[in-house]
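Work Package 3 (structural annotation) set out to generate three-dimensional models for the target panel prioritized at the project kickoff. During this period the team completed the workflow that converts sequence records into discrete structure tokens, so that structures can be stored uniformly alongside our sequence database. As a representative example, we reproduce one entry of 192 residues exactly as it appears in the project archive.
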Amino acid sequence: MADDPIDLFDTWLREAGAGEPNDPNAMALATADAVGRPSVRMVLLKGHDARGFVFYSNGESRKADELAANPSAALLFHWKSLRRQVRIEGAVTRVSDGEADAYFASRSRASQLGAWASDQSRPLDARETFEARYAEVDLRHAAAPVPRPPHWGGWRVVPDRIEFWEDRPGRLHHRRLFVKTGEGWTEGLLYP
């Protein structure tokens, strides 16, 4: 058992891309506030490498508030059609402005405008309010590329634990746990 967990994740993500019908990069993101109250939601993985796993969002959202108060998170990829899942835990850091700018520029115009129009996670009195804000932002940026809002950015989960779970008959599942140790990883098995 000498696999690098990032290389193994790359392989599993490629296989999920070929076999999952929708969003193979969808992941559950679990955070907790300053007093430990947990919260979980689905987000999309937008990049990963040896430094960690990256997602983007509104910096004034509930998840951003929780990550500011408690900069740790857990991720879960569940690929039901492949009968596999990957669990990742670690500290969270913000991505650079340059990385955030580059990713924001790659988004569709509608998604860029939505990032300006939405007060993500805040109460909304009526859908029409949001649609009017969207129309106003669209008009304001009609003649130029849409810049990244200052409150919008990315986070990187820097893994210190990565578990690979595979379904087996009779619930005799196969679980491999990688734990970060210095510059490398140790690997072991877990009972199902």
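The radius of gyration is 19 Å.
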